[in-house]
Amino acid sequence: MARYVLSRIGQALLVLWAAFTISFVLLQAMPGDAVLIKFQNPEYGLSPEQLADIRAAYAADGSLASQYLQTIGNFLTGNFGYSLQRGVAVSAQLAANLPSTIRLAGLGFATALILAVILAIFCNIPGLGRLRSFIHSIPSLFVSVPTFWLGIMLIQIFSFRLKLVPVINPGPWEGLILPVLTVAVPISAPMAQILLRNIDEVLTRPFVAVARAKGASHSWVLWRHVARNALLPVLTVAGVLFGELLAGAVVTEAVFGLNGIGGLAEQAVTFQDVAVLQAIVVISAATFVAINLAIDLLYPVLDPRLKTKLGTAR
């Protein structure tokens, strides 16, 4: 078990290093010069020597290797540098914008899981007939809906037509209803598909037949014997889907005008603010890796068969 934990932690650190390195190389390869974009304005009246001093102040005058080593060293100590566009610490910008994205992503993930479970429950209610086939097809519809289109449609229907949820000066929680649904619906689809497929597969196993032979009802078998076995694969794919949710959250923030990482990333791309972009990439990768690492470490606890295999391998 200890070897398994160390192996997963090592893989997580390797992924983080790869994400940092690839993003650093790609950002440095971007055409243009962020210093010139910001300061080469005749109104500033800056000389080439002054521009060189500014470049040195932002550690942008060294070789690519020296910049890489300095940047990775700063990141390891929690120093994300300074925004070239705003002239403030990147950590201060993240502290102001990150909580909104975390709240949106967390609520969206929980809502997606609830939607997937609700669809699975309705599909397994006896006596629904053709309605079950229709409910079974809903995840395929959800997965094909673009995030930005869904957000616009929700605004049109629930805000402008039905006037149920305001989008202009909404309350702190009212303003999250439509954005949360926007990020939750697309990722609830693959969760529901996997859950339904696993429920159908688990229902054919011998221990389910034994439980039914003992007189257990369909609902008892479903909740007592099927749910835990069917949810384990969903837990695995949920970690992967969280990365898609983060991408959807960035688009959703742009659609609803939320002050989160999405807006910060958009501004950083426009002005080639490399320090901000690098920090956003690393923070997003770290969040994704941390969630998947937690799932990997939790899986042997939830699945005794894997714990047995690990013990045998050791």
If you had to describe this structure to a student in words, what would you say it looks like?
The radius of gyration is 25 Å and the shape is flat. The protein is built from 13 helices and no strands. The longest helix has 39 residues. It is mostly helical.
Helix and strand run: HHHHHHHHHHHHH
Mean pLDDT: 79
Termini separation: 8 Å
Structural class: mainly alpha
Helix share of residues?
Answer: over 70%
Count the helices. How many?
13
Number of strands: 0
Flag low-confidence runs.
none
- Global morphology: flat
**How large is the share of residues in beta strands?**
under 5%
Over the alpha carbons, how many angstroms does the gyration radius reach? Answer: 25 Å
Largest sheet: none
Topology summary:
Layout: H1 2-28, H2 34-39, H3 48-57, H4 64-76, H5 90-123, H6 130-143, H7 147-161, H8 174-202, H9 206-213, H10 218-256, H11 261-270, H12 274-302, H13 304-313
Helix pairs in contact: 1-12, 5-6, 5-8, 5-10, 5-12, 6-8, 7-8, 7-10, 8-10, 9-10, 10-11, 10-12, 11-12, 12-13
Describe the structure concisely:
The protein has 314 residues and is mainly alpha-helical.
Search tags:
single chain; 314 residues; mainly alpha; 13 helices; flat
